[in-house]
Amino acid sequence: MSRAHNFNAGPAILPVPVLEEAARGVLEVAGTGMSILEVSHRSKEFEAILHDAEERMLRVLELSGEDYEVLFLQGGASTQFAMVPMNLLGPGRSADYVDTGSWAEKAIKEAKRYGTARVAASSADGSYSYIPTKLDLDPAARYVHITTNNTIEGTEWAELPDTGGVPLVADVSSDFMARKLDHTRFSLIYAGAQKNAGRQASRR
């Protein structure tokens, strides 16, 4: 098979050794005589794979397993537009959102279903061609939400904002593990699995 060059903004290219290992796992995993698709999700073999993936994820992000938890969830990053406010916001509560592009706009729209999604800054006036430098943050906000990289508009946060102690939440789908960040600055990050490495890590 001739490998294609894939510059798609969605599904990412995977190294051939990764694909080969995954293919072997489809036939049999850990000497069980069963495929990874057949083995019980409660089995020690599957749990070993899951825990290893979680540990590796935290190690790459330079996060402590005592302070952070990795969650592998269905639905992609767009589902988290709702899941984040459903779990962290709630009626009568407010969260600050920085509107820097199409995906941030979608996150704001979804959050408004579950509470007050206050736009603390926006670059909509410039067709999302820049990242706002002045944020009107509410110190009583439940969290501050940003989109670290906007694939459609081509803007990326060069430095993380100072939220003054308010938990920082981010959609990192488009640059997750693509650059070095101080991930301890975040209280929660989420990403679509088809982009980069994709996962959600939340502070316990």
Description:
The chain is an alpha/beta fold and 204 residues long. The chain folds into two domains: 16-61, no CATH class; 68-203, 3-Layer(aba) Sandwich (Aspartate Aminotransferase, domain 2). 26% of the residues lie in helices and 18% in strands. The protein has helices at 16-27, 44-61, 76-88, 102-111, and strands at residues 68-71, 94-99, 116-122, 144-147, 149-150, 155-156, 168-171, 188-190, 200-203. A seven-stranded mixed beta sheet has the order 1-9-8-7-4-2-3, with helices on both faces. The radius of gyration is 19 Å and the shape is globular.
| Assembly of the depicted chains | single chain
Mean pLDDT: 89
In whole angstroms, the N-to-C terminal distance is 45 Å
Give the number of helices.
Answer: 4
Q: What's the short version?
A:
The protein has 204 residues and is an alpha/beta fold. It has four helices and nine strands. Helix 3 packs parallel to helix 4.
Question: What characteristics describe this protein?
Answer:
9 strands, 7-stranded mixed sheet, disordered C terminus, 26% helix, alpha/beta, Aspartate Aminotransferase, domain 2
What is the fold's blueprint, element by element?
Layout: H1 16-27, H2 44-61, E1 68-71, H3 76-88, E2 94-99, H4 102-111, E3 116-122, E4 144-147, E5 149-150, E6 155-156, E7 168-171, E8 188-190, E9 200-203
Parallel strand pairs: 2-3, 2-4, 4-7, 7-8
Antiparallel strand pairs: 1-9, 5-6, 8-9
Helix pairs in contact: 3-4
